[in-house]
Amino acid sequence: MIFAPTDLKVVSANLKAIFPEKPEAEIRNLAKQSFRNFAKYLVDFFRFAKIDTAYIEKNIRIENIENFNQALDKNKGVIVLTAHLGNWELGGVIVAVLGYPFWAVALPHKDKKVDEFFNFQRESKGVKVIPLGKAVRTSINLLKENKMVALVGDRDFSAKGIVTDFFGKPTFFPEGPAAFALKTGAIIVPGFMVRNPDDTFTLRIEKPLEVKASADREKDITDIIAQYKLIFEGYIRNYPDQWYMFRKFWIS
Predict the structure, then answer these.
(1) Residue 50 located in a structural domain
(2) d(C-alpha 122, C-alpha 104), whole Å
(3) Which residues sit opposite 63 in a β-bridge?
(4) DSSP codes of every residue in 15-50
(5) 215 belongs to a structural domain
């Protein structure tokens, strides 16, 4: 935080947009805690080698895993949807270690060696990585094979984002999760790995979303995003110091 005053200001501004009623001191404390939690997130990432079923039994509480099972039983593929909250990377690893057919779309790092390290950590535990640039065709094919494809849905990395109202203010959400569901019939299942006060985790799987296709694709995408953005808002309100958004988030 001392070495990233600009990032601290950005995080504080994002939190203030969500909690305009909170005093500046509380907002600043939340922002500082988010940096601390992000540091723990990175440490967890470096320790993936230690994760096995014994680790899961000791450190991970899993809620509603049956929602994954029921979605897979539909044989249409599963879009696992999450946000930059808690430890989404660890969540994916846990699902893969449990034996689910799990792929994740990831934004490649600019540094090749860093990118290789991150992908090695993921793939060493069974998470298959789909580079963002190859995500469309690969994801569609995997979903048609009834695989699970994980997407992070609270930040748009393309030029095709959909403007949506988030906490009462406009921002861009990626259309990918909704577009994939409409294209393939895959089931969208939100899931989140949140850190507990004792540094254990809860992996919580939400109920599948209702996806109904009509002749109006744009409206369908907007309606689907409207469903899961409410879920995102709920988690961010409950865990604001675990939402890692280090850039200006809303449209001016």
Answers:
(1) no
(2) 9
(3) 204
(4) HHHH-TTS-HHHHHHHHHHHHHHHHHHHHHHHTGGG
(5) yes
Report yes or no on 167 lying in a domain. Answer: yes
Distances (CA, A) of 7 to 34, 35, 36, 84, 164: 11, 10, 13, 16, 24
Report the SS3 class of residue 151.
strand
| CB contact at 8 A, 78 and 177 | no
Taking the whole predicted model, whether its pTM rises above 0.90 is answered as yes
Contacts with 122 (C-beta within 8 Å, 6 or more apart), sequence order:
48, 89, 92, 93, 104, 106, 129
Per-residue pLDDT tens for 82-118? Answer: 999 999 999 999 999 999 999 999 988 889 899 899 9
**CA 211/CA 81 separation, integer angstroms:** 14
Contacts of range 213-220, beta carbons closer than 8 Å, 24 or more positions apart: 213/182, 217/182, 220/178, 220/182
How does strand 78-82 pair with strand 187-195?
parallel
Query: pLDDT digits over 27-63, tens only?
Result: 999 999 999 999 999 999 999 999 999 999 999 999 9
| Torsion (CA) 123, 128, 129, 130 in degrees, nearest 10 | 170
Residue 40 lies in a domain: no
Helices (H), 124-242: 135-144, 176-184, 217-238
**What residues make up the domain containing 161?**
63-239
Total domains, the chain:
1
Whose CA is closest to 66, among 208, 235, 176, 188? 208
